[in-house]
Structures are given as structure tokens and as C-alpha cells.
Amino acid sequence: MPVPTARLLSRIEAAAYAGVSPNTFDRMMADGFMPGPKRIYSRILWDVRALDAAIDCLPGDSDSSEDGSDDNEWDQV
To answer: Which of 44, 46, 50, 59 could covalently link to 14 via disulfide, CB atoms 3.0 to 4.6 Å apart?
Structure first.
């Protein structure tokens, strides 16, 4: 997906930017993994910078490699 040119994204765009479905995005927001939207007049929009910060805080990058669970038998070949 190309980098968005708009700073504020709709729910569908924000979910796509995060790489998840809109329903999963809603669940992540309810669980506190994604930021809430901004209301501008009648529009509900998500800030790309807030999405980036939330994505940066998601577990998984270095968490799984610390306990050795990412060991790959092909690394030994």
C-alpha cells in the first residue's frame, strides 16, 4: 500500500494503513492498541502520526526473539 498523502485518514483508510480489517481495527481501538479518532465537523478521522506511534508500540518486534521462540531450524544449515 502506498504511503498516504493525507495526514488524516478515514476508518477504512486507517485500518488499511495498519494492515488490518476495519473490524479488527475497531477491536484494536477498543483494546487500547490503536488511538481514538479526531472529530472535524461531521468527519471522524485518524491522525497518521498517532497511528504510527501506536503501531510502534505494538508487541512482537523484539519480544518474541528474546525468549528464543523465533528459532528457525534452517538458521543452523
So the answer is: 46
Q: Look at residue 4 in the predicted model and tell me its pLDDT.
A: 63
**Total number of domains constituting the chain:** 1
pTM value surpassing 0.90: no
Query: Mind spelling out the 3-state secondary structure of the chain?
Result: CCCCCCCEECHHHHHHHHCCCHHHHHHHHHCCCCCCCEEECCEEEEEHHHHHHHHHHCCCCCHHHHCCCCCCHHHHC
Range of the domain at 33: 1-58
Q: What is the mean pLDDT of the segment spanning 11-38?
A: 97
Asked if residue 14 belongs to a domain, the reply is yes
